[in-house]
Amino acid sequence: MSSFCLESLRRRVFAAGLLALALPASLCAAQAKPRPAATSAEYGAQQSTYALGMHDPTKPEAQPPLDVDRDPIPSIDPVAPAPPVANNQGNNNPMQAQQGKNGIYVLHTDVDEVLLNCTVLDDKGRTVDGLTQRDFRVWEDGVPQTVNAFLHQDQPVSMGILVDNSGSMRDKRGAVNAAAFNLLRDSNRQDNAFIVNFSDRAYLDQGFTSNLVKLDRGLSRFDSHGTTALYDAVAASADELSKHGTNRKQVLLIITDGADNASRLTLQEAIRRVQNLGGPVVYAIGLLYDADKREAHQARAALDLLTQETGGVAYYPSSLDQVNTIAAEVAHDIRDQYTIAYHSTKPASEGGYRFVHVEARAPGHKKLIVRTRRGYYAKSAAAPAETAQDNQQH
């Protein structure tokens, strides 16, 4: 067997259910408490739904275990205990970043609240500080909502960094990896992140950690080749955030140089999967300056839609030299957001997609632009039970 094939077997195949490559059993048992994989019957049934065209892209896919190390060596990382949280009795604000004994701030909200991370810009595109809860107005499906929680401070973030590993990225990875690492290095100490390298398949080359050495190693595990299955990688990464992200504020950062040409999911299906899994904010850096004009147009349209629907933004540098500056801008944008929450006036039992519109007005500002997700899928009454069952299984 070639060295490339051996390395492929050792890597953690990430977009499971979308791949033909299976993990060896020795990897699945590498960690002391692995998340159970789907049974053969469950996995086979899902593949049959693909063949029959009946697969529901809004539901998480059956996956082989993702919570094992990339190399077949058991992890020695200690499991960090949940930080102690100060008592919140008597607090009128249902959403607070409470400081525990170890100094970590933890965001708490009611489970049925709609949480919105909002970036506010003035008419010159500069971020705006100093706003209060009364400066925001929220509408859901055209109906005014009452903002009952508000926060503006640097909160810990759970982040997934997705880097294009296709053949066209070979000469760009050095600069891209350096920029991504600088972003991680300058982040909040309590952030955690994972690294995904994707081409025609997506590989989880570093699971959630705050260890910069491990994250740098994950960025370095690439072998640029093949095509680009961006939408599959985004859907799988959103699923990883939903299952294992420990912070309420969640972000995906995509770095790519071309259009998707290998995913089994469509762009619309990937967006719906992200929205249905809680809606992490998606940022993108599109290195399209040397791409074919038609491909660049297709890639830009997809990245714009993906980021706008989730409240993020896409950047398009004119050269590789600008990537590091843009990564720093992304970090600043993430840190300088307002978090607001409200209880929808529409019963959750109605389910379905709800459109959200947010405005901000404050003295001394002519026009304020609020960037946040455009909507969300309401969880029906059955959803909590399904979520609890999924958490027990994983």
Describe this structure in words.
It is a single chain. With 394 residues, the chain is an alpha/beta fold. The protein has 3 domains: 3-77, no CATH class; 100-152 and 338-389, no CATH class; 157-335, Rossmann fold, CATH 3.40.50.410. It has 10 helices and 16 strands. It has helices at residues 3-10, 25-28, 40-52, 173-185, 212-220, 230-244, 267-276, 293-310, 323-335, 383-393, and strands at residues 96-99, 105-108, 114-121, 136-140, 143-145, 147-151, 157-164, 192-198, 202-209, 249-256, 281-286, 314-315, 338-342, 353-360, 369-371, 375-377. The strands form 4 sheets. It has a 6-stranded mixed beta sheet, with helices on both faces. Helix 4 packs parallel to helix 9 (323-335) and helix 6 runs parallel beside helix 7 (267-276). It starts with a helix and ends with a helix. 36% of the residues are buried.
Task: Provide a quick synopsis of the model.
The chain has helices at 3-10, 25-28, 40-52, 173-185, 212-220, 230-244, 267-276, 293-310, 323-335, 383-393, and strands at 96-99, 105-108, 114-121, 136-140, 143-145, 147-151, 157-164, 192-198, 202-209, 249-256, 281-286, 314-315, 338-342, 353-360, 369-371, 375-377.
Number of strands: 16
Low-confidence stretches: 1-10, 16-55, 61-94, 96-111, 381-394
Number of separate domains: 3
Main β-sheet description: 6 strands, mixed
CATH architecture call of the largest domain: 3-Layer(aba) Sandwich
Order of helices and strands: HHHEEEEEEEHEEHHEHEHEHEEEEH
The shape, in one word, is globular
Radius of gyration: 21 Å
CATH topology of the largest domain: Rossmann fold
CATH superfamily label of the largest domain = von Willebrand factor, type A domain
Which strand order spans the largest sheet, edge to edge or round the barrel?
A: 9-8-7-10-11-12
The helix content, as a percent range, equals 25-40%
Strand content: 15-25%
How far is the first residue's CA from the last residue's CA? Answer: 33 Å
Q: Structural class, judged by helices and strands? A: alpha/beta
